[in-house]
Design goal:
This protein is 27% helix and 7% strand. By secondary structure, the chain is of the alpha+beta class. The termini are far apart.
């Protein structure tokens, strides 16, 4: 169902709306899409030609993911902000990395503290193995778009960036230009890691920066939830969605949400200027991609675990997100640093109606699915606290 439908364009509907200025002008509403712009996730994951998955590589990556040896102060692991108990995300607007304690919503900075918040909201790692996929198929995994500002491609590259970031994992222990080299030196001093890297990659000098990224990426590609009730529906199980969810799907299409949120991952992987309110916890204004205040369209899958929402976590619920879009469609915008004319027309021309919101939120719940792999190691080779300082 869905993929074989023929798309008919019925025309362009014109609605008038007031902009933030006193002038009133017409807004062009694009014709609604139909369900063929969406799709089920594949049953299998693609891997790069230079990084095929093996059990040894995946297990090494799992241990590294939970081991704070990768952080400057040995107190933060990848899992600190992407924990299985929180859907491999967390319930904070902005993450607390170095010099933090606690997990999820209970995490706070230790005092004294001179470390800033991580500048953006922590997205779930579930299904990032599918980043870049469209209804035409999966792109080369080495070209998969990553981060809110698209600054790197591939899980292999993405996994190394937090190690270099001051507020995420590096802290004061290293300089950015030698952080990875310092971490590699640490790993080489641990006999278990020497054995595990050799087993996963072969050779006598297997502990390298590239292999570190490859191992973590191999593990992250196992964190897949590709059998949501929406996936089942798109594969032909017409009873998988409730009546209210089907109505939410209809309204999701009608209101224009699929102009940016389409394909199996519900994302066009492009950046858009939306004028999200400023995050007062930051010491500066986050201007996003190319300093344009544009941010990448996030996936809508597993939204249950990724609250609060938007790149800076300023919107606390899905209802708040849809109300934000309703305001934009009425000509209002919430960021004083931008003019309404700077808002991406794909966003400002949405047609979200308040009465649609509850149904759309109910539909979005059908996109949730848990990965089968959620195990937490009992110990890590460094013998540090599993997951970092989270207790």
């Amino acid at each position: 169902m869905g993929k074989n439908l023929v798309v008919f364009v019925f025309g362009i509907i014109l609605f008038s709306a007031c902009h933030s200025s006193s002038d009133s002008k017409k807004i062009v509403r694009p014709a609604p899409d139909d369900i063929s712009v969406l799709g089920a996730l594949p049953l299998t994951v693609s891997t790069p030609i230079n990084n095929p998955s093996t059990p040894e590589k995946i297990e090494l990556g799992r241990l590294l993911f939970f081991d704070p040896i990768l952080s400057g102060n040995k107190d933060v692991a990848c899992a600190t902000c992407h924990h299985p108990d929180y859907g491999f995300a967390e319930s904070l607007d902005l993450s607390i990395g170095v010099n933090g304690t606690g997990l999820g919503g209970s995490r706070n900075f230790k005092q004294p503290n001179d470390i800033p918040f991580v500048k953006r909201n922590s997205q779930s790692i579930i299904n990032t193995a599918f980043n870049g996929i469209t209804n035409s198929g999966m792109i080369d995994p080495l070209q998969s778009p990553m981060f809110w500002d698209l600054r790197v491609k591939s899980l292999e590259s993405q996994s190394l960036e937090p190690i270099k970031a001051f507020e995420e994992m590096r802290g004061h222990a290293f300089m950015e230009n030698n952080a990875l080299a310092k971490v590699i030196s640490r790993l080489k001093e641990i006999e278990d890691y020497r054995k595990l890297f050799k087993k996963a990659f072969g050779g006598q000098d297997a502990i390298t920066k590239d292999n570190l990224g490859k191992a973590i990426a191999a593990y992250e590609r196992t964190l897949v939830g590709n059998n949501s009730r929406f996936d089942q529906y798109m594969r032909g199980n017409t009873a998988a969605l409730t009546r209210n969810e089907l109505e939410g799907l209809r309204l999701f299409l009608k209101d224009g949400c699929t102009k940016c949120h389409h394909g199996p991952m519900f994302s066009d992987y492009k950046t858009h200027v939306m004028g999200v309110p400023e995050q007062e916890k930051l010491r500066y204004s986050d201007s996003g991609y190319a300093k344009s205040y544009a941010f990448r369209t996030p996936s809508l899958r597993n939204l249950l675990h990724t609250y609060p929402y938007m790149h800076n976590g300023k919107l606390k619920s899905l209802e708040n997100v849809l109300e934000f879009y309703e305001d934009l469609s009425g000509g209002k915008q919430a960021n004083s640093r931008l003019q309404f004319s700077q808002i991406d027309p794909l966003v400002s021309n949405l047609n979200v109606d308040f009465k649609d919101i509850a149904f759309i939120v109910e539909f979005l719940g059908a996109l949730n699915d848990e990965p089968l792999e959620k195990s937490i190691p009992a110990r890590v080779p460094s013998h540090l606290l599993v997951g970092g300082n989270i207790h």
